[in-house]
Amino acid sequence: MAPLTEENKIATDWYEETCQRLNTLRQDYSCPDPGEVMPCEELFQRAKEFLSDLREVSGFPSVPTPDVWVSPCGKIGLTWDISKESDYLELEIEFGKNGLTSIRLTEDERQSLVTLRDVSSVFRRFAA
Amino acid sequence: MFHLFLDGSQRKETSVFKSPIEIKLDDNEQLVRIFKRGERETWGFRKLRKIDFVRNMTEHSGISLFRLKYITPTEAMARLITYKKKGLAAVEAKVLKEMGFKFMAEHDLDPHVSMRCSLCNLEPTSTEHKILCKTIEGDSCLLENLSSSPSELIPATLSKRFWLHTPIK
Q1: CA dihedral in degrees (B8, B14, B20, B24; nearest 10)?
Q2: ipTM of the complex
Q3: CB contact under 8 A, A69 and B146
Q4: Inter-chain contact B40–A101, Cβ cutoff 8 Å?
């Protein structure tokens, strides 16, 4: 029986599933269209490391698996969004060529930047 | 020159311009935007993102939309050459007009429009592609690539105003 590779391993939680999505994007976006920029390999790793730290600092909350995306200019983004009754909450973390570029919280239609000091408490709001 | 419409009727082209002009769209005209996903990016096949509504600074200074009045969804998607999978997002022109957007095209019957933000001075794009039109006040284009400026809000708003016309399968 062949050993399981990182890509083949079945995700057991949102963090592993997110890492798998990042791996998938790293491969799918290895051939960018004209005008697009591919994120560097290191950036995918930085995103995983940040997420690992955030998960630990936040007390390992059980949150949904985020949307994971790559922008045409080579940024990596993670987006959590939840709708509870009439409220809408969205957390977006972006990584650019120099690492973490922004953490943005949207509540209904109000958007604000989140500091590293506050990100763990904001993150816990998305726990089930 | 005559244009053939999807219903089989013909109309004589009344105006042809070499450089883009601002055109007016009917409120109920349906517009589509092509969005792309990676081959295995399955979690994104049936959702729209703000990055689907930022300009990529290649052919022109706005974002490309196609008019279903003059082109089929399949023909519209065929216009974009990409390694990735393609889907379509749709909206009524009225929604975009109310947000202050403007539309530039080669002529009134052009199936392709370049949507410009409300601040745009509507100058034709330089053929060098690197020089984009400047806003009237010198501010950043609201359809600019993602940054930490307030211009972030416009693509995010657009992603919520468009609806999923053709999801990726």
Answers
A1: -80
A2: 0.86
A3: no
A4: no
